[in-house]
Design brief:
It is an enzyme of class 2 (transferase). Pfam families: PK_Tyr_Ser-Thr. One of its GO terms (molecular function) is carbohydrate binding. Its EC number is 2.7.11.1. The chain is α+β, with helices and mostly antiparallel strands and 150 residues long. It folds into 2 domains: 108 residues, 2-Layer Sandwich (Phosphorylase Kinase, domain 1); 42 residues, no CATH class. The protein has 5 helices and 6 strands; from the N terminus they run H-E-H-E-E-E-H-E-E-H-H. A 6-stranded mixed β-sheet has the order 1-5-6-4-3-2, with helices on both faces. The longest helix is centred in the C-terminal third of the chain and has 21 residues. It starts with 7 loop residues before the first helix and ends with a helix.
Length: 150
């Protein structure tokens, strides 16, 4: 039921490979109650790893997505090398039959856009807070454009 296939690229480029069973258990079977959001490439679920109790975010690539195995491999190969305090860390991945999943650190405060553009009074930020956020974003962009390949 949970059979997984390993390919040669995984030994060279890949970070930690999670078992499908662990991610299935972590996300309570990819229940809607664990759904964090939906994007162009699929759905993102909150999970808790059964072995370490670490909170994770699992991006489940949509079967309808045009992101095939080549793009999946490219994302893994590039994301695994990124190390910056303002970028979400890729912890690993899972591939089982047609299932493609990426595992990231869970960000308990949610998406940055909800703080910058949200209408909720509780998420309103002062201009000094917004300025600190944009400095962090600029730092991450500088890293991506100039430093990460070194």
């Amino acid at each position: 039921k949970y059979q997984e296939l390993y390919e040669s690229w995984e030994h060279e480029y890949a970070p930690h490979r999670f078992s499908y069973k662990d991610l299935f258990v972590a996300t309570k079977g990819f229940r809607n109650s664990e759904l964090l959001g939906v994007g162009g490439f699929g759905k993102v679920y909150k999970g808790v790893l059964p072995s370490t109790f670490a909170q994770i975010a699992v991006k489940r690539i949509s079967h309808d997505s045009r992101q095939g195995i080549k793009e999946f491999m490219a994302e893994i190969a590039s994301m695994r090398r990124l190390q910056h305090r303002n970028l979400v860390q890729l912890l690993g991945y899972c591939r089982r039959k047609e299932e493609l999943l990426l595992v990231y650190d869970y960000m308990p405060n949610g998406s940055l856009d909800k703080f910058l553009f949200g209408s909720n009074v509780k998420t309103k930020l002062h201009w000094s807070q917004r300025f600190n956020i944009i400095k962090g974003v600029a730092s991450a962009l500088l890293y991506l454009h100039e430093e990460w390949e070194q």
